[in-house]
Amino acid sequence: MKCELKCQLCHSKDTVTVETIGQRVVYRGKYIYVAVDISPLCVGHVLIVTNEHYFNFYETDKKVKEETFFVKERLKELEKQFYHKNVLFFEHGSIKSGEAGSSVEHAHLHVVPCDIDIKVELDKELGEPINCDILKEEFLNISSYIYLEDSNHKMIYPVDKLPSQYLRKIVGEKIGNSKYDWHVNSTTEDSLKRLEETYQDLKGKIK
Predict the structure, then answer these.
(1) How confident is the model at residue 10 (pLDDT cuts 50, 70, 90)?
(2) Taking the model in full, what pTM does it have?
(3) What is the pLDDT of residues 125-179, one digit of tens each?
(4) Which 8-state DSSP code applies to residue 203?
(5) Is the C or the N end of the chain the one with fewer CB within 10 Å?
(6) CA distance 49 to 124
(7) According to the model, what pLDDT value does residue 104 have?
């Protein structure tokens, strides 16, 4: 999909690329890239991002999903090696502008090394999820969604409007970082330190 707007995550030749993204990239593939989050919730927090413009990973085509699967599996190994934790994957999967808590409407999957369980909390807030791997399965009546994947679950919560950075807030608070808002915390000393440490740990390691 060609992006008609200036998207800060697009990395295709037809779209605008923001230099600061390039300075955080630890892997660049044919269809996706991996960059350290602009304001990591913890050391090891990275994003898997599509090169071309998609709203979410559910709508990506087979070749994008295949490369994403490979990178996800490699990141599980690396995060365990460096940070001795399992990995939580999550996505604010917007279909329409302003939905699902997405603050950047370009497909990006968060990768956070942490051993937390937020399913019970999400069930209370959003209702029962649909068991679904967004890279392999389809679900009916597609809407904007929240995707969550941990060691025990792969699930989608169909949603409409949610507060911006909904899952960043929940995950951040669970791991002891209440400064989840990347808009205001990306230039703090702690955030920059986490970013640099993650970059040095993971650059060139995804092979």
Answers:
(1) low
(2) 0.89
(3) 999 999 999 998 876 667 899 999 999 999 999 998 899 999 999 999 999 999 9
(4) T
(5) C
(6) 29
(7) 74
Kindly state the tokens that stand for 150: 């941990």
Cα angle: 35, vertex 41, 24; to 5 degrees:
20
pLDDT over 70 for what percent of the chain? 87
DSSP H or E segment with residue 49: strand 46-50
Residue 19: how many CB atoms within 10 A of its CB?
A: 6
The string of pLDDT tens digits covering residues 38-53 is: 999 999 999 999 998 8
Q: Which of 62, 60, 147, 66 is nearest to 111 (CA)?
A: 147
Alpha carbon distance 13, 17 (integer Å): 9
Would you mind telling me the total number of residues written for the chain in this entry?
207
Name the helix (H) or strand (E) containing 121. helix 119-126
Question: Which phi and psi (to 5°) does residue 200 adopt?
Answer: -65, -35
User: For residues 185 and 79, what is the distance between their CA atoms, to the nearest angstrom?
Assistant: 23
**92 strand-pairing partners:** 146
With beta carbons less than 8 A apart as the criterion, state whether 173 and 149 touch: no
Residue 135 has which token pair?
């890279």
Sequence-distant (6+) residues with CB within 8 A of 105 are 7, 55, 94, 97
Count of other CB atoms within 10 angstroms of residue 118: 19
